[in-house]
Amino acid sequence: MKTVAAVLRAVTDQRPYAASAPMKLEEVELGAPRAGELLVRIEAAGVCHSDLSVVDGSRVRPLPMALGHEAAGVVEQVGPGVRDVKPGDHVVLTFVPSCGICPECSSGRPALCTPAAAANGAGTLLHGPSLLRDAAGQVIHHHVGVSGFARHAVVARESAVVVPADVPHPIAALFGCAVLTGTGAALNTAAVRPGQSVAVFGLGGVGQAAVMGAAAGGAAFVAAVDPVASKRKLALEVGATHAFAPEEAEAAIKDLTRGGAEVTIEAAGVPAVMEAAFRALRRGGMAVSVGLPHPSRTVTLPALAFAGLGQSLVGSYMGSASPQRDIPRYLALWKAGKMPVDRLQTATLPLERINDAFDALAAGQAVRQILLPNG
User: What number of CA atoms fall less than 13 Å from residue 235's CA on the CB side?
Assistant: First the structure.
């Protein structure tokens, strides 16, 4: 079938993106779903910093590529062998289609699935090569198994979580990355417990979701740290008890917690922010790193902090999540009014304004913008 997708053909840091237009809408050929795959009509797709990182070259991916990894839509067709999903089902798409049988999946860490990582890195799908071609017949790579900045996408069944039809698509899309990653960092990776102290550094969509997750987990102290005042204000409205600009955060957190936070979560993808989050820990505290910095970047931490102070730094990819388990749980928290996920939505835009959305994201003006590919 023919559909429309936003395609990146060359990385660029030339801004404004609205002028250089690195993402261009193209009519592309999309193959039919194979065994174990679904054809999904994309109704909403969130614009995440991970998408911007591919555009500016910080996250190296094979090009040309149809971007977008946080999306929701409606199943239109199922491939052979798919029996638990049917046309008309509403789905949230996730960017790690865990195979279920590799060592990582078998040990309860599906977010680190080895075959999924290989497929995502190659720009293919879990069950086979790319199904996207441009007008000249050239292969277009899939973005982490989703390619959600499009009117339609074919995805592995393992990339889709069926959700109730009464969840609005723009809300549902947020659960595919921002909520899954941020809330998962708090509830899965850090396993926040009632009464604990938590500090979140970086208040984009993922960071705000981490604030909500910490609050939902019962943390008594939730500090939110970001240079943008409007993001700090939003954090206070969705679960934070305190908010600080970066220059005041460490001293204030240590003073208010009498030594430092038990858990810090870094959601900026900036080494200096990772270091700041680590410095804000108390003895025995855990720093959780969620952001994705450029692969060439490094961090410098005091070696004695690990054995001498019992502190730890752990990574959290996709919130250490099991999407089939966690997305329904987080949706239940949202429906119960315990996680105001809808507050993350900064704006809704037509797919044609994708480059404007990247400009707003790069300028720090947006938490989560939602693109509406089909209206």
Answer: 33
